[in-house]
TrEMBL record:
Residues 42-267 form the Histidine kinase domain. GO terms for biological process: cellular response to phosphate starvation. It comes from Paracoccus tibetensis. This is histidine kinase. The lineage of its organism: Bacteria, Pseudomonadati, Pseudomonadota, Alphaproteobacteria, Rhodobacterales. The chain holds residues 100 to 369 of 369 of the full protein. Its EC number is 2.7.13.3.
Length: 270
């Protein structure tokens, strides 16, 4: 970020280009190093919490609960849930690391985005029905083909729909709508926009800029209750960036949230 500014603004005559860039470069490296340390600390904490619970229950099963079949059953259920949480966290960490490693390579296989979205909604239909959420889809009737990675784009929309169901209101509505943008200035060309919208509790504005950070959650307790890891939107952000697209988040407390994914129509732009 800072380096880009240096490149466009004229340098003061007395400071050599190399010296200034070197100083800024080091601050960027330090920032990256701090982020790496925070990430390792977060991962360790997130893995340690379920692990501590597991060890505690093993201890209890060996001692006080040994003869109590009822308690044993309950404890095993909790242990299974904690183990599944660790499993999910590790899968998402691997997914995030794969996506980050591939970020520079722009995907180019033709993907029918409309068919992909219909298939995501079909997969999520049982979960939506269980939550009593009415799903509406718009603009998915005819094929919309763009260059992309079908598995990763599926992951993006599955995540957004899952979040809308998790944090939306039970008995509420979920709307998925695709529209064409003739010219998206930021992408310097035509684009497709997919909105995933819920009528849930919404998110306070101060949280919005940080929502796609790894492990950032508005309500950590609620996220854990829902089986969340805090990595979903970070993965979403990196996949969209790999597709040279944009993610827009709009939300109003008490009214709902809209995530809009904007993807360029062709490979030659953006
Ligand atoms: P998580 O695994 O916690 O769901 P995500 O990265 O998917 O992690 O989302 C980060 C946080 O953003 C969530 O913990 C939640 O606080 C908030 N969030 C995401 N989607 C929504 C939504 N549709 N409505 C309200 N809050 C949301």
């Amino acid at each position: 970020r800072i380096l880009a500014e240096v490149a466009v603004s004229p340098l003061p005559a007395l400071i050599g280009r190399g010296a200034l860039v070197a100083i800024l470069d080091r601050s960027v490296t330090e920032e990256a190093e701090q982020m790496r340390r925070d990430f390792v600390a977060n991962v360790s904490h997130e893995l340690k919490t379920p692990l501590t619970a597991l060890l505690g229950f093993i201890e209890t099963l060996r001692g006080p609960a040994r003869e109590d079949a009822n308690a044993r059953g309950r404890f095993l259920d909790i242990m299974e849930r904690e183990a599944m949480r660790m499993n999910r966290l590790i899968s998402e960490l691997l997914s995030l690391s794969r996506v980050q490693a591939e970020e520079r390579r722009r995907p180019s296989e033709p993907v029918d985005l409309a068919a992909l979205l219909r298939s995501v909604l079909a997969t999520m239909a049982p979960a939506a029905a269980a939550a009593g959420v009415a799903v509406t889809a718009e603009g998915l009737e005819r094929p919309v083909v763009l260059p992309g990675d079908a598995d990763q784009l599926t992951q993006v929309f599955q995540n957004l729909v899952e979040n809308a169901l998790k944090y939306g209101r039970s008995g509420g509505v979920l709307r998925v709508a695709m529209t064409e943008i003739a010219h998206e200035p930021q992408l310097r060309g035509p684009a497709w926009a997919v909105a995933v919208e819920d009528r849930g509790d919404g998110i306070d504005e101060i949280h919005l800029p940080r929502l796609t950070e790894r492990f950032y959650r508005v309500d950590a307790h609620r996220s854990r209750e829902e089986g969340g890891t805090g990595l979903g939107l970070a993965i979403v952000k990196h996949i969209i960036s790999r597709h040279r697209g944009r993610l827009r988040i709009e939300s109003r407390r008490g009214e709902g949230t809209r995530f809009t994914v904007v993807l360029p129509q062709g490979l030659d732009r953006g």
